From TrEMBL:
GTP binds at residues 288-295, 313-317, 335-338, 405-408, 429-431. Belongs to the TRAFAC class OBG-HflX-like GTPase superfamily. HflX GTPase family. Monomer. Associates with the 50S ribosomal subunit. Residues 226-238 have a biased composition (Gly residues). Mg(2+) binds at S295, T315. The gene is hflX. It comes from Rhodococcoides kyotonense. This is GTPase HflX.
Amino acid sequence: MTDTHRPETDLGPHTDSADHTTWTAEESEAWSRRIARSPLPVDEDAPSSGDMQLEERTALRRVAGLSTELADVTEVEYRQLRLERVVLVGVWTSGTATQAENSMAELAALAETAGSEVLDALVQRRDKPDTATYIGSGKANELRDVVLATGADTVVCDGELTPAQLNALEKVVKVKVIDRTALILDIFAQHATSREGKAQVAFAQMEYMLPRLRGWGESMSRQAGGRAGSNGGVGLRGPGETKIETDRRRIRERMAKLRREIKGMKQARDTKRERRLESTTPNIAIVGYTNAGKSSLLNALTGSGVLVQNALFATLDPTSRKSTLEDGRAIVLTDTVGFVRHLPTQLVEAFRSTLEEVTDADLLLHVVDGSDPLPVDQIKAVREVIMDVVKENDAPMPPELIVVNKVDAADPVQLTQLRGLLPGARFVSARTGEGIAELREHLGEILAWPEAEIEVLIPYTRGDLVARIHSEGRIKASSHEADGTHVEARVPNALASVLSEFAYDTVTA
Ligand SMILES: Nc1nc2c(ncn2[C@@H]2O[C@H](COP(=O)(O)OP(=O)(O)OP(=O)(O)O)[C@@H](O)[C@H]2O)c(=O)[nH]1
């Protein structure tokens, strides 16, 4: 396939369209969204050709390089046009064959999550990636043949490529080439819903894009040179400034603006964080590899209806739910963003403030997919990210409880091995409910009990304090007296000091 198959709306740097030799800020932003541009995933409700407007059909035909004189675009064509068709390629440098295969299977899942159709995959065994084309020239030619044979319009590489490698490989295969980092950034961009999440991803995308502007920008500078002279194009460029510099400047300006916005949003988050830290209700952060079942476990433990999807990174913005343990104590459970091997550093950086929730937690519930072929690798990948964040925040590592999920779907032999490897772990199925009641009970046992012993008489006007004792402490005895509620309980020190003025001895003396 050739570039004629790329939608004309693609503002990407590969376009030869003379219309885009100078970009507005909006265009730069649109481009950043399109580093790994993926059309909308095929949805079951896609209009059949009968529903489509003539204009839309014509536009789609033009995009696909099909003749507009032909009759209707068929539904199949419509779906194909909306779905990016990709070939995957990986370099297997170390580890076992299972790890290599697993990495490719994960890349396929990532590509599908981004809305692409995976047509084929190639793996090249090498000591290290080729410095010029990532896979080496022989394999690159083979890849070109696969691309031609399958009609793919994009190649996705299972690693982070240098800008030069991306360019060199694109020259051989003649279709768009993206790397794993760009793919993950794109998925995050599609899934971010909150203002902060969106801003964080946009910043990470631009950071990724900036050094990659060179190769693309050079050809654009040449275009600019051919038309208006590379120095001092009409109005937009300063003396001696090339196109590439203009683009970089625009992106940097946009990044500076985003940085300010993110900082502003962080202040609101800090206030929330302070409140969270002041509260003595135990905070449990649910962490784990993407698709391990974190949202499902949150639902199973709290009986809530958080969205569960069989998609990677369905959750980007933390969701908190309150729940009450069997002993009456309140807990707060927070579902966090899923982790993945080689999470782009730009993203870890971008989500650092979101991940602070992890460092503040009283307990980490680390969910592991027991049905995954390599659960131990997942545990390692998650711990690496957590350690990074903890170190960065200069915080102590919160205690961790491993919860092996999906026991209903896991291989019994693997489960036996995991029981040996992870002696303290709990085994559950968020789907069938197996082990969930035991897990709740276990949480009650391991969450530290409040340390201060109190006996108070609380006036009936302060029902709020009685409620706090109920949710934050353990009540030993309580009775309704003429002057108020008489309570004997164990409560956290902070609450004990608030209650000191109502100490039974003082009040009744
Ligand atoms: N068989 C089985 N499937 C499960 C279980 N728990 C979750 N799943 C499935 O695993 C998939 C992912 O579940 P989620 O709860 O969305 O996983 P997550 O870890 O929150 O995912 P991300 O948001 O991508 O990080 C869904 O298709 C769930 O139905 C389980 O106990 N057994």
